[in-house]
C-alpha cells in the first residue's frame, strides 16, 4: 500500500511539473515572439528592455529545471550557440529585439550547464552583457572546466562589437569574472573577426574594417574593468596596438597558457 501511494505521488508530482513547464514554455513563446517582432516606431511607449529582462529571468528559471528539445528551441524562437563540446555541458540561448537605433539588435543571453552529477543549472548572462554568442569552445586545463565564447553585438553604426568571453564552471557555480585578459574575463573589439583553434588554443583576431576607436570601446568603456590605468596599458600591449585607429588593418595573435591569454610570441 505504501509503495502504491509513493508511486501515485511520484506520478502526480511529475505530471504537475510537466504541466507547469509546458505552461511556462507557452508563456515564454508568446513573450519571445513579441520581443523579436518589436518595432520601436510602431509601439514607442512599450518598455521593451524591461520586458526582455523579465523574460530572461523566466527563461533562466525554466532552464534550471529542464533541457529543451530542438523543437522546443525552435518553437520558442531561441538561437542556440554552436558548440565544440563533446558532452554539451554548457549551452547558451539567445533572444532579443531591434531597438530601432544605431545599436540595432540587442541580445539577451542565458546560460545552462550541468555539474558533475548531471544536475541542471542556469544563469541570466544578460545581467552582465548583451551579446549574441554563436560559438562555445573548451579551454585546456588539467582540472578546471573553462570555456571560451565568441559573439557579436552592434555598438554603433561604426562599430560591430566582436566579443570573446571566458567562463568557468565550478561545481554548481558559473564564474563570469576570472581575469583571462589581464584584469577582465573578456575582450570587446570593434570590427574584428575572431577565430579560435581548439587544438592549438590560439585566438586570432583580424580587423576587417577600421572605422571605430577601439581605445574607447575595448579599454576605457568597460565599466569597473577600466578603472585601472595600469591594467588598461597592459591590455593595449596585449592587443598589439589594435586599439588605435591606423591606416592598415590589424591582427591579434593570442594563445591560452592554462590560466590566461598571452601573445603567441610571449608576453
TrEMBL record:
<protein>
    <submittedName>
        <fullName>Uncharacterized protein</fullName>
    </submittedName>
</protein>
Amino acid at each position: 500500500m505504501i509503495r502504491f501511494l509513493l508511486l501515485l505521488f511520484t506520478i502526480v508530482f511529475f505530471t504537475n511539473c510537466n504541466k507547469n513547464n509546458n505552461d511556462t514554455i507557452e508563456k515564454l513563446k508568446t513573450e519571445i515572439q513579441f520581443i523579436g517582432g518589436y518595432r520601436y516606431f510602431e509601439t514607442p511607449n512599450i518598455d521593451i528592455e524591461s520586458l526582455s529582462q523579465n523574460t530572461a529571468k523566466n527563461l533562466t528559471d525554466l532552464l534550471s529545471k529542464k533541457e529543451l528539445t530542438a523543437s522546443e528551441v525552435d518553437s520558442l524562437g531561441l538561437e542556440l550557440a554552436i558548440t565544440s563540446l563533446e558532452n554539451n555541458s554548457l549551452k547558451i540561448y539567445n533572444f532579443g529585439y531591434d531597438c530601432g537605433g544605431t545599436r540595432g539588435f540587442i541580445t539577451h543571453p542565458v546560460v545552462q550547464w550541468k555539474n558533475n552529477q548531471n544536475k541542471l543549472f542556469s544563469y541570466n548572462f544578460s545581467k552582465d552583457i548583451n551579446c549574441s554568442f554563436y560559438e562555445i569552445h573548451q579551454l585546456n586545463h588539467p582540472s578546471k572546466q573553462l570555456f571560451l565564447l565568441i559573439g557579436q553585438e552592434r555598438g554603433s553604426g561604426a562599430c560591430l562589437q566582436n566579443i570573446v568571453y571566458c567562463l568557468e564552471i565550478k561545481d554548481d557555480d558559473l564564474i563570469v569574472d576570472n581575469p583571462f585578459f589581464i584584469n577582465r574575463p573578456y575582450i570587446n573589439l570593434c570590427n574584428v573577426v575572431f577565430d579560435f583553434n581548439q587544438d592549438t588554443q590560439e585566438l586570432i583576431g583580424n580587423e576587417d574594417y577600421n572605422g571605430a576607436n577601439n581605445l574607447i570601446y575595448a579599454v576605457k568603456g568597460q565599466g569597473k574593468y577600466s578603472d585601472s590605468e595600469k591594467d588598461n596599458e597592459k591590455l593595449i600591449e596585449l592587443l598589439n596596438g589594435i586599439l588605435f585607429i591606423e591606416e592598415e588593418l590589424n591582427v591579434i595573435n593570442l594563445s591560452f597558457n592554462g590560466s590566461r591569454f598571452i601573445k603567441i610570441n610571449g608576453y
